[in-house]
Amino acid sequence: MSERATQTMSLAARFAASVAIVAGVTFVCYRVTPVNATTAGFAYLLAVLLIAAGWGLWESIVASVAAMLLYNYYFLPPIETLTISDPQNWAALFAFVVTAVIASHLSTQARRRTEEALRQKREMERLYALSRAILLAESARDGAKEMAHQIARTFELPAVILYEPTTGIFHRAGPADLPGVEEKLKQAALQGTQYTDTRGDLVVTAIRLGGKPIGSLALVRPELSDSALQALVNLVAIDLEQAHNREAVSEAAGARRSQELKSTLLDAIAHEFKTPLTGMKAAASALRTGSVSNESSRQELVTVLDEEIDRLNQLVSEAIETARIEAGKLQLNRDWHAPEELLTDVAREFQAASAVRPLGVKPAPGLPRVFVDADLLRLALRQLVHNAMRYSLAGTAVTMSAHCMDNRVFLTVTDYGPGISERDQERIFEKFTRLQAGPGHPAGTGMGLAIAREILRAHGGDVIVRSREGAGAEFSLAIPLECPATDNSTATAIGEKQ
């Protein structure tokens, strides 16, 4: 059965009920408790007013006509006829009918005004809830999609579609589907028009900002006034503009961070490369000028050149890995490796520096092999040893150790420098953070610990620090012993914190 047929049947039922109520009043006033014509007239008038207040004008008019006929038939002489003997009763009957109709009309108007006020109140409350959601929104990600869902929830609509011409995406929300409306949305967004179907079940309207259409919105059965609909569209326009602004700010911030990273890395590369290049230049100049006649001295200079070239090659590799990590392109090439071999490899790279600060290697016996990317893990270890060498006092020892506990292998670097306060122990893992501890201002990028943590978290582990001011620092690479899938994917960090 169609909706129109249902409405017609409902109206007919109310008409029948109105006549039945008037008939009931007649039965009571004529048979149950006989009353005079004046009392019966007031009873009819009261019934008509109640019908008008409960149902509406047309139902009360039907009740008025029925009351006029029954009042004439049963209470105005001659009784039980539709004729009136006294001409004065015609005026009374006419006054009754007019009074009943006017009273029912006024009652219907009052009811409609009350319903309109309640509807406007609901609209204002919903518009306020929607505006509050817009103001509290912080992320530009999926902003239009979230707005569509918010409209459907707030206004209890079965279907909502929000169209963004800049992306060409139709954001759908609500339990019902709305097929075949895409062209109307595109036309509204292009021409700034509004479309309403004949029954008012579908509204497609343009979203304007500064008089220019920036999108379109389709709503199914929106019980909204024109002003509320316009306010809704304005809120959507504000939200879309805020989302675009947030996205632009985020992109600008990302560009600034990228530029900052590039500048910092270039500065670090220039500083770190300076030492091996200086040594290489001195050795090459001595060999080129022939000022060294001793064969053993020449071999020593060649050895220096070879070591510094290796060191320079290592720095280039680390810079490349650092850029890959920062760009989110970290790929793990895992294999089984012995922890003590990883420590020994890194210690061998610091032989020259260990003449000033002794570097010891103390792995526990019987350690299980770990399933890791050896190059990246050595890079993380080097970052820890670099920091330990940089911040500890000359002559104090730096120790690398390894042990197994709680189903994890810990590769630990310990120094006996100035230590790190509890307040700084989490901050040191932030990018570009350098503590000004110890004598002078140690050089570096401030990226080492951040890189080490990213590498370990990619392996499903973490970097753990134990330290207190004046008592040195201990950094541990916590590597889980579980064997992950060998798919070069990045694992989830366990996020352990002390």
Q: Could you explain the architecture of this structure?
A:
- It is a single chain.
- The chain has 498 residues and is of the alpha+beta class.
- The protein folds into 4 domains: 3-119, no CATH class; 138-250, GAF domain (Beta-Lactamase, 2-Layer Sandwich), CATH 3.30.450; 252-326, Orthogonal Bundle (Helix Hairpins); 335-480, Heat Shock Protein 90 (2-Layer Sandwich).
- It has 11 helices and 12 strands.
- The strands form 3 sheets. Strands 2-1-5-4-3 form a 5-stranded antiparallel β-sheet, sandwiched between helices. The chain has a 5-stranded mixed β-sheet with strand order 7-9-10-12-11, with helices on one face.
- A hairpin with a 2-residue loop joins strand 9 and strand 10.
- Helix 1 packs antiparallel against helix 2 (37-54), helix 2 runs antiparallel to helix 3 and helix 4 (87-136) runs antiparallel to helix 5 (143-155).
- The longest helix has 64 residues, at 226-289.
- Mean pLDDT is 78; it is low at 437-443 and 483-498.
Features:
11 helices, 498 residues, 5-stranded mixed β-sheet, Helix Hairpins, rod-shaped, alpha+beta, 5-stranded antiparallel β-sheet, disordered C terminus, 4 domains, Beta-Lactamase, 14% strand
End-to-end CA span: 68 Å
Q: How large is the count of helical segments?
A: 11
Structural class: alpha+beta
Mean pLDDT: 78
β-strand number = 12
CATH topology of the largest domain: Heat Shock Protein 90
Low-confidence stretches: 437-443, 483-498
Number of domains: 4
